[in-house]
Amino acid sequence: MPYHPANPLIVQGDRTILLEVDNPRFEEARDAIAPFAELEKSPEHIHTYRLTPLSLWNAAAAGMTADEMIAALDRFSKFPIPANLAPDLLDLVGRYGRVRLNRVDGVLRLTCDDRALLEELGRNKRVREYLGKRVEVDSYEVDDAYRGVLKQALIAVGYPAEDLAGYTPGAPLEVALRETARSGATFRVRDYQRMAFEAFHNNGDARGGSGVIVLPCGAGKTIVGIAALAAIGRKTLILTTSTTAVEQWKREILDKTDIPEEQVALYTGDSKAIAPITLATYQIVTYRPDRASEFPHFHIFNEQDWGLIIYDEVHLLPAPVFRATADIQARRRLGLTATLVREDGREEDVFSLIGPKKFDVPWRVLEQKGWIAEARCHEVRLSLPEPIRMEYALADWRDKFRVASENETKEDLVAILLDRFTGPDDRVLIIGQYLKQLKRISERFCVPLITGQTSNPERETLYRRFREGEIRRLVLSKVGNFAIDLPDANVMIQISGTFGSRQEEAQRLGRILRPKARSGDPALFFTLVSRDTREMDFALHRQLFLTEQGYTYTIIDESELRSESPASRHHKAS
To answer: DSSP 3-state helix, strand, coil percentages of the chain (rounded to 5)?
Structure first.
């Protein structure tokens, strides 16, 4: 039905959309607008979306028209959509693809049917330096080396190019998915994982082959990447965040495919091997002796005939990797991430150089279907002891956050939480920012500590012992933020973090979101925050992405935890 007071949407002239959660048509409306509207926040009753140029261009790249977007808004709106909105959407959506990159007789061209626009772009100082000679009234030749930087320049001036120039096939690679994994478990690509790959690949069409898949932590982004490399069947380079992540990818590839182990190589600080499937860390790729030097490992991008490059945790892509990626636009590129939020604001570079968002599923949707665990988030607020209050008061502005984060009272609350989770199925991760604090906790509670200084063999041994239940608690520094495969972890205690990083909050929660052995068991996330300090201000910002995904934080005072502790109960009984 057209707009009606019983509908769940309020569409506003500033391009914001309010969605009523308690409306019977909520889910239908949410699914209709999610492809083209960016979710800004999603607390309990009203979700807020915004129509941004990037959200509209992502939808246009996926084949959605402005008329379809306007019809979706009209169908679910309480009131007539504002008069300015339809023309705005038609204009913005229409900008995607007005300029195209394609090949004519093997030569890359920038083509535009609008001669006046092409003249304007040809005179724009950001664009013109990447254009070659004018070959037709509607096109310029373009050097292949400029394919990436030209796309960056075009999106910066508001005309994102549709890249139809195709891809270098890459060297063949024979690989197939197993129906029974080497571990003995039945293996099947889940429906949403298959849909994600198909949206990226687009049956091998020129419109497929570059783009980003957004899935929650624990939802199996690695499996999407493995499905892609098996279906494309070409030499593949996989870039990820750490040696631990590299080992995890290798373990999954060998378990889920028939590829022989000798065809999978690691290119890290410890090993510089190259094979048909090569796994490398961002850290080694972006290493250079000093800021004036070149990047000695950039050769990995060009010296092999890759048919696919996978960027794991693409929201963390270092700036130098953008530079390298701009030079390899002829290779298929798949980005995997739990969030397109970048703290440096370079979402447009991801769009230009990796590709548009091709698939996205809200975290709570997969939670409701049982693919990731239900999460319950708690913020525990505690006071600074009197001596530390004075230290905090006298500290300079930046040090105040560290003083509040290292509040020693947190250790007593960790003790209470550890006493609470002692069951045979409990697996607890304690994670933080400051090494001195982490070492104190490790020593006090006799829990193994993993930091950046822990050797890779020792890390892998501790992770394996945790997975096998031999140890049930680990203390982790920032190395625990990304790509560690600990599926049975069900409790995380966050004692400190990196200022207001939304990425980090989401990644840390993601460590405990894999479905549990006992179906229906929730994942419990506790973050300890010092009251009346800068840490509280940053905590609010850290939580933004997760509240936008529909999670809520229950606020607990330290006194509530203390009253529930075994020692307290014993004292009351006596």
So the answer is: 40, 20, 40
